[in-house]
Amino acid sequence: MHFFIKSVPNLLKTKLSAVLSRPSRLLCALCVQTAVGSLAPAHAQTITDDLQARTTFAQPPQRIVSLLPALAESVCALGHCDKLVGVDRFTNWPESVKSVPKMGGGMDPNVEAIVAAKPDLVLMAKSTRAQDRLRALGVRVVSLEPMMASDVKSTLERLDALLNPGAPRAPAVWAGIRAQMARAAAAVPQAVRGQRVYFEAGSGLYAAGEASFIGETLKSLGLVNIVPPSMGPFPQIGPEYVVAANPDRIIASVRATQEMPSRPGWSRITALQKSQVCSLKPEQADIVVRPGPRMGEAALELAGCLKG
């Protein structure tokens, strides 16, 4: 090819050389594009939340605000407690989060404080208010609200993919939860299995029914819930319902169990007559009522109470 170029007039040679060099320029352009492409974020992740909203992150979030205790606990369980720059007022575990700035509650978040913290991720329940306002202000919001054990697993896996790309930790966390739940089930005395239980989840006689994550745990321990799935996960029930159901076991906060004998008709309930009542201290209740990475620990707490 070079000998041919030398044999033509200079003008033609110049034009022909330009034509012949065009593939080289195209190849160089492709090389540049490839090089630029190689500089693109290697760990870009898209997370689909419980509202089916998809959010893409070019790199793992470094500044996280959590407005649900279970979500903050999940972030910590996955090894990123140090990235929390704001939490809701009820988040109190692990110990290190107690010094993290409080930014309101799930239902009344302090939007101004959240924006001022400059988070690159805000975690909140799908029922939390102010989502639209935060998004309008350019804040990336991911709504996750675990309600059952399967949701806890899914939440851990989605956060893990976002926070630990290429080095997953969720499988080990979930395996630990399952191992704790198995140990709890094995620790429940055979005489307790099959007994009927009432779990009071909140003031106003809100019960944790069979359809709740607490109900799942109680079932795994061999207990029978007096609140069937048809009534929903956390129904508000009348005091006469509990009297009529006459549970063998009652689980509630210390404050609730102390007042139960004075409730009309409750002195006839088998659980109270036989003192088969689990009174949960505040720190125990925090563990039991949060659908997060401490579910296995919650099962162990309940098993220990049932043995007493």
CATH architectural type of the largest domain: 3-Layer(aba) Sandwich
SSE run:
HHEEEHEHEHEHHEEHEHEHHEHH
Query: Separation of termini?
Result: 94 Å
How many domains comprise the coordinates? 2
Shape: elongated
Instruction: Classify the fold: give the CATH topology of the largest domain.
Output: Rossmann fold
Total number of helical segments?
Answer: 13
Tell me the name of the CATH homologous superfamily of the largest domain: Nitrogenase molybdenum iron protein domain
The residue-averaged pLDDT reads 89
Main sheet overview:
5 strands, mixed
Category by helix and strand content: alpha/beta
Number of strands: 11
**Which oligomerization state do the chains in this entry correspond to?**
single chain
What would your notes on this structure say?
With 308 residues, the chain is of the alpha/beta class. The protein has two domains: 45-165, Rossmann fold, CATH 3.40.50.1980; 188-307, Rossmann fold (3-Layer(aba) Sandwich). Helices cover 43% and strands 14% of the residues. It is built from 13 helices and eleven strands. Strands 7, 8, 9, 10 and 11 form a five-stranded mixed beta sheet that branches. A four-stranded parallel beta sheet has the order 4-3-5-6. Strand 7 and strand 8 form a beta hairpin. The protein starts with a helix and ends with a helix. Residues 1-40 have low confidence and may be disordered.
In short:
The chain is α/β, with parallel strands linked by helices.
List the helices and strands and how they pair.
Layout: H1 2-6, H2 10-38, E1 45-48, E2 54-57, E3 64-66, H3 69-77, E4 84-87, H4 111-116, E5 121-124, H5 131-136, E6 141-143, H6 149-163, H7 170-187, E7 196-202, E8 206-207, H8 213-220, E9 224-225, H9 239-245, E10 249-253, H10 254-259, H11 270-273, E11 277-280, H12 282-288, H13 295-307
Parallel strand pairs: 3-4, 3-5, 5-6, 7-9, 7-10, 10-11
Antiparallel strand pairs: 1-2, 7-8
Helix pairs in contact: 6-7, 7-13
